[in-house]
Amino acid sequence: MSSFVSQSVRAIRAAFLDFVDDPFYVPESNSVRYIPDGLLVIENGAIADFGSYDDLQKKYSTVPVTAYPDKLIMPGFIDTHVHYSQYEMIAAYGEQLLEWLNKYAFPTEEKFRDKTYAQKIAALFFDELVKQGTTTALVFATVHPESVDAFFEEASRRNMRMISGKVLMDRNAPDYLRDTPETAYADSKQLIQKWHKQGRLLYAVTPRFAPTCSDAQLQVAGKLLQEFPDVYLHTHISENVKEVAWVAELFPESKGYLDVYDRAGLVGQRSVFAHGIHLTDAEFQRLSETKSTIAFCPTSNLFLGSGLFKIAQAKSIDYPVKVGLGTDVGGGTTFSMLHTANEAYKVAQLQGESLSCFKILFLATLGGAKALLLDDKIGNFEVGKEADFIVLDPKATPLMANRTQGFSARTLENLAQKLFGVMMLGDDRAIYAVYIAGELAHCLAP
Ligand code: GUN
Ligand code: ZN
Questions:
Q1: Which atom of ligand 1 is the closest one to the Cα of 331?
Q2: How far apart, in whole angstroms, are the C-alpha atoms of residue 426 and residue 443?
Q3: Which of these CATH numbers, 2.60.120.260, 3.20.20.140, 2.120.10.10, 3.40.50.2000, describes 77-371?
Q4: I want to staple 258 with a disulfide (CB 3.0 to 4.6 A). Which of 8, 114, 196, 283 is the partner?
């Protein structure tokens, strides 16, 4: 066997955790896959084999192995909603959504008309993402096509699986950030043709949210989706009480917020709606029916005082809605998906629900991949998928080392107990190494 193994094949030996199903619906014993001593075989940036070290070691005896003792390897995190354009204004004091947009977000986004600035921020954004273990994200750029070019150029250099698009906004925003339905259409079309499916990159038609889009603008978004049926739709919905009331005023003929998007043909299985805090029961049902996704962004929802996302309703049995986790920087206060997981737990606690670490980490990995219809490519260690993964250090700090008491866990209960500690106490110090398409992209080792 060994003589058939090509030179480019490499393997990683460690403890591995991933998900093979959704623990919100399937018992954890059937949805969590934990291999205390495993081997992940990588070839050409993809997973060539995966299993227990004992089972695979003979087959790959000539392959170079990198071992990570006392670490835990998981699939790379997937951030289903973040604004790279708001990198600079994270943690802006004192306002809720609509005032916050006017006071902080819009003036910052104006800077992206300058491609050099956009390039600088794109590089910083990706550095931050990678060190936090996020290997895929669905990302708002700005209204400027240059911002999308700068983003995708940097993503392409790093060979990361990324989704983004030009923001569409033609009203209720400063002049300097407004496009028109005509320029929105022409620019988006050109960007789709330039970037969609180039390497690992994918495009999302990105109307900012209903209040900044005229009817004509929403129609343009719908037309783009019809012409390019495999691009995404990425927007915000029902985040803030004042915003929801404003949408009712602006679109009196609509049945509700989601209906504004529905009438324009923007609701479907490739549609990702950020927040969804104030959705009605009927809207949850419609999202379920259409297989749409909600990006749950707990740090943002708390920071902007928006409210508590009804995760239990979204993940109900009767009307299940696909859910991913999002940081929503700069409304969100962290790029860390561990921090985000931590806050997701607290948001559920405030509603009387205790989410297991498995459920939340599912949302951050395979759940996010399913939400983005990318679970044939990323999200777990199935053979053939792209080799994006992170090496977690459960002893990253003295506090974590004490809490986890070494990481070797033999049972699922024991693992859950330790992993919950990692999730609640961890941050970028716990992301020991990050691999993108099989290549080491970040490592804390000196
Ligand atoms: N709704 C419309 N635009 C935005 C934005 O930039 N951030 C958040 N959190 N919500 C929005
Ligand atoms: Zn957002």
A1: 9
A2: 16
A3: 3.20.20.140
A4: 283
* Residue recorded with tokens 């994270």: 90
User: What digits encode the pLDDT tens for the residues 204-222?
Assistant: 999 999 999 999 999 999 9
Q: How far is the CA of 430 from the centre of ligand 2 (A)?
A: 26
Range list for CATH 2.30.40.10 in the chain: 10-75+380-443
Question: Which residues surround the ion ligand 2 when the cut-off is CB under 5 Å?
Answer: 274, 328
In the block, residue with structure tokens 């690992």: 200
Q: CATH fold of 10-75+380-443, please? A: Urease, subunit C; domain 1 (2.30.40)
Give the tens place of pLDDT for each residue, 299-357: 999 999 999 999 999 999 999 999 999 999 999 999 999 999 999 999 999 999 999 99
Q: How much distance in Å is there from the Cα of 298 to the middle of ligand 1?
A: 14
Assess contact for 336 and 427: CB atoms under 8 A. Answer: yes
Q: Model-level pTM greater than 0.90?
A: yes
Consecutive H or E run containing 433? strand 431-436
Q: Which residue is associated with the tokens 């209906």?
A: 259
